[in-house]
Structure formats: structure tokens, C-alpha cells
Amino acid sequence: MDPDSVKSTLSNLAFGNVIAAAARDLQKEMVAKDKAQAAPASHDEVDLDELLDDPELEKLHAERIAALKKEVEKREVLKRQGHGEYREITEGDFLGEVTGSEKVICHFYHREFYRCKIMDKHLKALAPVYVGTKFVKLDAENAPFFVAKLAIKTLPCVILFKKGIAVDRLVGFQDLRSKDDFPTRALENILKTKDVANFCGQRMYIEYSVIVSFKCSKI
């Protein structure tokens, strides 16, 4: 056989072996990569199962449920005390109402005053949201004693009480840029700034309701 032909044949065989080896290496690499990509999913599943059975996590969950339940119970007590709605009271009710809750917003109004009706609309919208605060209104004409005692000169007048003490007031629409078309959010922000608008676990109440509904649906 011609030496050059033999050399060429050996060279081709060597090249073929290199290609084959490279192909095997590539295949191994691809298999390893596939396994690596599949591993995290399996690992995550194992970790999730472990978390679901984790006694520490179960304890935290139980504590959270207990806290939510406590907030819901507190909310229900406040609602029985007249929170969560915008109510009209009489002069005879006044002292009991403003001293019976930690935070009270009382609107002194006149039935014929247009701006009093505007204030009514906004306070009525806020009362169900801020259950931690009691929202009431009192006809100024039928409450001359407290109108004089609180030196009310302009209506509408919204008196803010904390623990039975008048701590601040909104006179007319002075704090609302004297505009009749102010948004409820504007009044809401003022009341929050003055620290008399309390949610009383509104979000926690919703969260608890969702959890209870979820648990019931699984029974």
C-alpha cells in the first residue's frame, strides 16, 4: 500500500475518533444540563413539603389567625357601640356618645344649610371605612347648650374628640380650600393627619374573612 495513502487513512481515522469523542462529550454535557435544570423543580417541591410540615411555620400561622380573630372581635364590639355608620344623636345622647369611645367625630349641622349636607355626604362615606372612630351628627338648633359650651359660631362645624376631650375642629370648609366640590379623600386626609380616623384592623378583617372562607371551602 502506498505510504501516503496509509498516512491519509490513519489521519482520517484519527479525525473521526476526535469527532466521535467530541460528540460523546457534547451529549454528556447536554444530559448533565438537563438534569441540572430539572433538579431545582424537584428540590423546590421537597422544600415546599418540608415547609408545610414545619411546626414553627404552623405556630406562626396559628398566631396570625389568633391576631386576626382578635381584631375581628374588637371590630364587632365597636359596631355594637355605634361605630361603622354615620348616626344622628340628640343633645341628651351627646355626652355618652363622645365619652363612650376613644375617638369620635361629631358634625354640628343645620338642616337647611347646603354645606352641611355636603359634609354629611362625605362623613357618611367614611364612617364604614374607619370603624375605629365613631361618626355622629347633632342638629345645632336642638343642642343649644353644647353649641354654646363649645363656642360653635359657624356651620358646618366638625368637632374631633379623643377620650371625651375636644382636641380639634373643622370650621366650615376652611381646611378644604372653601370649595363645595372637594373629594372625600381630601376630608379623609385631614382627619387622618389629625389622628382621629382609625381603621381598626379593616385590612386584617378582610384577610381573616378570606382565610376563614378558604378553610371552609376545603372542608
Protein model, in words:
This is Thioredoxin domain-containing protein PLP3B. Residues 88-175 form the Thioredoxin domain. The structure is a single chain. The protein has helices spanning 3-52, 55-80, 91-99, 114-126, 144-149, 184-193, 202-218; strands spanning 86-89, 103-109, 134-139, 157-162, 165-171. Helix 2 crosses helix 7. It starts with a helix and ends with a helix. It has a five-stranded mixed sheet, with helices on both faces. A hairpin with a 2-residue loop joins strand 4 (157-162) and strand 5. It has two domains: 59-80 and 200-219, no CATH class; 84-199, 3-Layer(aba) Sandwich (Glutaredoxin), CATH 3.40.30. It is α/β, with parallel strands linked by helices and 219 residues long. The protein has seven helices and five strands.
What is the secondary structure topology, with strand pairs?
Elements: H1 3-52, H2 55-80, E1 86-89, H3 91-99, E2 103-109, H4 114-126, E3 134-139, H5 144-149, E4 157-162, E5 165-171, H6 184-193, H7 202-218
Parallel strand pairs: 1-3, 2-3
Antiparallel strand pairs: 2-4, 4-5
Helix pairs in contact: 2-7
